[in-house]
Amino acid sequence: MNYEMPEAIPPGVSVDVHMKLANDQWKKDPAVGAFMSWFYYKVRNHGPWDYKQQNHAWEDFGNFHYGAVGRAGQLPDQILLRAAGFAQKRSGTQSTKVDWGKWYWRAPYG
């Protein structure tokens, strides 16, 4: 798949470097749970890679980065999509005007 990099990018941030970090971390211990724990602490709400909390203009970049880095760590799309839906539901930032679905059911995942 081809994806375009969002226009607004935080200065000094390299998706390629973070993808390599994620892949190296996964190679250290390929158990899904071990990588997910490491990844969670990077991307969690107000974590170091939670770019949309740092600047709203970086929201698209943050979503792109989350997916790219998560896949570099061998996380399946379904886990990434559902975890993102769960996080959005938990944060209470969803518009009530849109049916975002349920993170644990069918797309959309919240």
From TrEMBL:
Cited InterPro entries: Ntox44 (IPR028946)
Superkingdom in the source lineage: Bacteria
One Pfam short name: Ntox44
Domain Bacterial toxin, first and last residues per copy: 53-98
Protein name as annotated: Polymorphic toxin type 44 domain-containing protein
Organism annotation: Pseudomonas savastanoi
Species lineage: Bacteria, Pseudomonadati, Pseudomonadota, Gammaproteobacteria, Pseudomonadales
